[in-house]
Design goal:
The complex is a heterodimer of chains A (about 300) and B (about 350).
Chain A (H helix, E strand, L loop, with lengths): L7 H27 L7 H19 L2 H25 L4 H19 L25 H5 L4 H19 L1 H11 L1 H6 L4 H27 L11 H11 L4 H23 L6 H5 L1 H12 L18
Helix pairs in contact in A: 1-6, 1-9, 1-10, 1-11, 2-3, 2-4, 2-9, 2-10, 3-4, 3-9, 6-7, 6-11, 10-11, 10-13, 11-13
Chain B lengths: L1 E5 L5 H25 L4 H9 L1 H4 L3 H28 L6 H19 L7 H27 L3 H21 L25 E3 L4 E2 H19 L1 H11 L1 H6 L4 H24 L14 H11 L4 H25 L3 H18 L1 H4 E5 L5
Antiparallel strand pairs in B: 1-4, 2-3
Classes of the chains: A mainly alpha (about 300), B mainly alpha (about 350).
Chain lengths: ~300, ~350
């Protein structure tokens, strides 16, 4: 094995790219769970976003419109989950699983004519001055714009939850929906909006895979990224700051194992490919999660 | 304005009716989907749901019903215990794969010896493989409070990589001229799970039926079944009644893992024949739909497994005869679960029309 072929600067730079899809999906799910809803359908919304983004981007030849289409697609499919869990009071775990199964089928059908096509190019941003700093420049400031959109979203969610009135209402709904209802807040309306935001973010994360990271469409291409995003939310104890850390940790494991594969490590490819999933389990075990939002996963039915 | 009013008790009538309503709704909206894909909806629905049973070639398809239904029923029965108790093992696909690998490895180790003891040993190995794989999320949940949903699911991806490694490495057929995949167990008389191949009978079918009977007795006549149901409905009450939650988690995970492992073994030693990279076709995930469609009741699961097997077979017919993409069947199965969960509101709630007066 030739470890010297692994360039630490490139490794860290690709870490930021590898972390972005999971970060996008996870920040959306974080908002959903802070509103007291457990949507296990992240994988299904991600793959739907991946195919929607790809189809739209190829059709319009614009990755930006593709990302918009992906966010819309993710939000639309999350509406099914929202309608079932919020209005028909179905079990959230089962409905989330159904959303994943449905999304995998739907994306396979939608993407049929698109296998083997290349996505339109999505060039990296060149940021003057900052991008020219040695070492730090290539690691942080020479990426495609979506990397920064992801970071901005995390910061925005952090500020929203911490400082805004709407964020306070959302947290109240998640902590104790009965009390929030008694105070006159519309529990179901808040939750529906949160679910749609989560769907849009998961869609963006999926489209990042199909438009930037791979960049083409293959069936089942998310390969568990949505589930890892769910794990990161738990790992982050539902706090945006720690979510960032979690996403980079998993980005790091993914990139490292890919680099080891390329460097011809003595370990078989299959065992290296297990690394991100095993790391997820290890982190879930080691890191004690903080307290989950009080009403997480419970249906809300206003009896009066 | 439409309002939901909680029923004091779940409606018995709707408990039975909801799966049927869900199936009818799925047929209808499935038809809409097929029409959107440019197919004749009525012909497609007939091809999927009726042709496997009643067409002139039904004699060929009916055995398939047993082959596809057995693993679904076997896995779903195992899952239903945990689901009732609020323990979510959704990694049955991984336990299925590991059971198949372990069982097949034992069988292949004896090749080409012939002895009546080989298949029983494989069965034990398959059950143990699935059990151990399910014990990982179970023990982590009990010891560290780790979320069993995420861990069991992560282990599916690990199991898939393990399967690839086995099919390409340790278990590869030495006389296979370099092709991936193991020796064909179905052609190895002492190891095959087939009883009568042309009738679709293999030991997995027998085991599935036995599992249905045992599950029925356990759930309706045994204290264990009572504890499972109690824990699901009221965890606090269950604790006061002396139910050890940790033990219950391990037992429920253990049952589902064992049955999934058995399903994997019977599949790999019969219908699939060999350990290959993609011998698993997602029964572990479809079984989740089967468990819910069967209302987590053993007899219901038996019927639901049959219906789901029907969509698999009908889907294959529709694919070859009408050119229907197989992904459409996946959507149909997802839709079925959606409708089931949606209609289920009628079991627990009453719809009333309230005037928006006050």
């Amino acid at each position: 094995m030739d470890l010297s072929s692994i360039n630490p600067v490139l490794l860290l730079a690709s870490l930021m790219v590898a972390a972005t899809p999971i970060m996008l999906a996870a920040i959306g799910e974080l908002v959903v769970e802070r509103a007291g809803v457990l949507n296990l359908g992240v994988e299904g919304m991600m793959i739907t976003g991946a195919v929607c983004g790809f189809v739209v981007a190829v059709g319009t030849n614009s990755p930006w419109i593709g990302f918009a289409g992906a966010a819309l697609g993710g939000a639309l499919i999350s509406l099914i989950f929202g309608f079932l869990t919020q209005f028909l009071l179905s079990n959230q775990v089962a409905t989330g699983l159904a959303l994943t199964l449905f999304g995998l089928g739907l994306s396979a059908l939608m993407g049929q004519g698109y296998i083997g096509i290349k996505a339109p190019a999505f060039p990296d941003w060149y940021i003057p001055v900052l991008g020219d700093i040695p070492v730090i420049g290539p690691i942080i400031f020479q990426h495609d714009p979506m990397v920064y959109v992801g970071l901005a979203l995390v910061a925005a969610v952090w500020g929203f939850l911490r400082y805004s009135r709407a964020g306070l209402i959302l947290r109240a709904v998640g902590e104790n929906h009965e009390a929030a209802h008694a105070l006159g807040y519309h529990v179901v309306r808040v939750r529906m909006l949160a679910i749609m935001f989560g769907g849009a973010c998961a869609g963006l994360g999926g489209a990042y895979l199909s438009l930037v990271r791979v960049p083409q469409w293959t069936e089942g291409m998310t390969a568990g990224a949505g589930w890892i995003a769910l794990a990161i939310v738990v790992f982050a104890s539902w706090r945006p700051g720690r979510l960032l850390l979690g996403a980079y940790l998993f980005g790091g494991v993914t990139v490292l194992q890919l680099n080891l594969q390329a460097a011809g490590a003595a370990i078989a490819v299959e065992y290296l490919s297990m690394a991100p999933y095993l790391a997820t389990i290890a982190v879930l075990v080691i890191m004690r999660a903080g307290r989950a939002p009080g009403s997480l996963g419970q249906s809300f039915h206003a009896s009066r | 304005m439409i309002k939901l009013e909680k029923r004091p008790q779940p409606s018995k009538r709707w408990t039975f009716a909801t799966p049927i309503v869900a199936v009818l709704l799925t047929m209808f909206f499935g038809g809409v989907l097929f029409a959107a894909l440019g197919q004749d909806p009525l012909v497609t629905i007939r091809t999927i749901f009726f042709d496997p049973l009643f067409s002139e070639f039904a004699w060929f398809y009916r055995p398939q019903l047993l082959i596809k239904g057995a693993p679904l029923v076997l896995i779903a029965i195992g899952l239903s215990f945990g689901f009732r108790a609020g323990i979510w093992n959704i990694g049955a696909e991984g336990q299925y794969i590991v059971g198949a690998i372990c069982g097949a490895a034992v069988g292949l180790a004896f090749y080409p010896m012939e002895s009546f003891i080989i298949l029983p040993l494989m069965v034990v190995a398959g059950a143990l493989g699935g059990l151990l794989w399910a014990m990982i999320p179970g023990l982590l949940r009990v010891k560290f409070g780790t979320n069993e949903i995420l861990v069991s699911l992560m282990l599916v991806y690990v199991a898939e990589q393990l399967l690839a490694s086995m099919a390409l490495g340790a278990l590869r057929n030495p006389e296979g001229m370099g092709f991936p995949g193991s020796r064909n167990l179905a052609q190895y008389p002492s190891a095959t799970s087939w009883i009568n191949q042309s009738a679709g009978m293999h030991w997995g079918v027998v085991t599935a039926l036995i599992a249905v009977i045992f599950a029925y007795i356990a759930l309706s006549r045994h204290i264990f079944g009572f504890n499972v149901r109690l824990s699901g409905q009221s965890p606090r009450a269950a604790r006061f009644a002396g139910v050890n939650p940790g033990r219950l988690i391990l037992i429920c995970m253990g049952i589902s893992g064992t049955l999934a492992g058995l399903a994997g073994l019977f599949e790999v030693a019969g219908p699939a024949g060999q350990v290959s990279i993609d011998f698993n076709v997602g029964y572990g995930f479809t079984a989740i739909i089967v468990a819910f469609l069967g209302r987590l009741h053993p007899v219901g699961i038996l019927l639901a497994g049959g219906l789901m097997a029907l969509t698999y077979i009908g889907g294959e017919i529709a694919q070859s005869n009408l050119g229907l993409p197989i992904a459409a069947i996946q959507i149909l199965q997802g839709m079925l679960l959606f409708f089931l969960l949606a209609v289920d509101v009628l079991t627990n709630y009453r719809i009333t029309l309230a005037r928006k007066a006050h």
